[in-house]
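Reading is simple: the token line describes the chain's fold. The lines below illustrate.

. . .
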Amino acid sequence: MEITFFILMGMLILSMLVPFVALYAVSLVKRKDYETHIKIQKRLFWTCIFGTLILEIQIRLAGGSGNFVSNGTYVSEPFFKSILIAHIIGAVLTYATWALQLFMASRKRKAAGTFPGNFPAIHKNLGYVTIAGLFYTAITALMVCTLAFFL
């Protein structure tokens, strides 16, 4: 169980840092440093996906999420389950939007041969939605961990 908790804390820290790194990547676009923006976004996305997969596998190996949080004071409360479900739904939608962003931008870039090509308006809007989702995911992850492990 200790390794699972360590992985969980690592993912929590990653989740808290990701929105700020994504905002930094956006600042690079404003400086027209598109290549670094692309590298950061891809690496950040795949780091988050890899971390999430490792966390999910480790939680399953530790007996499932119910077993993992069973000692938490608030885990049996309805509001905890609501926050957990909201976190999961928000995270899945955020990562799906982020993946769509990466896929569409990659295809457009290959077709146009340059970046940003004729794609910037929707890309910019979806980018801000993704960053808002990353902040939401970080905040709800912190709430879930606090209720499950620290209170």
Summary: The radius of gyration is 17 Å. The CA atoms of residues 32 and 52 lie 31 Å apart. The chain has one domain: 2-150.
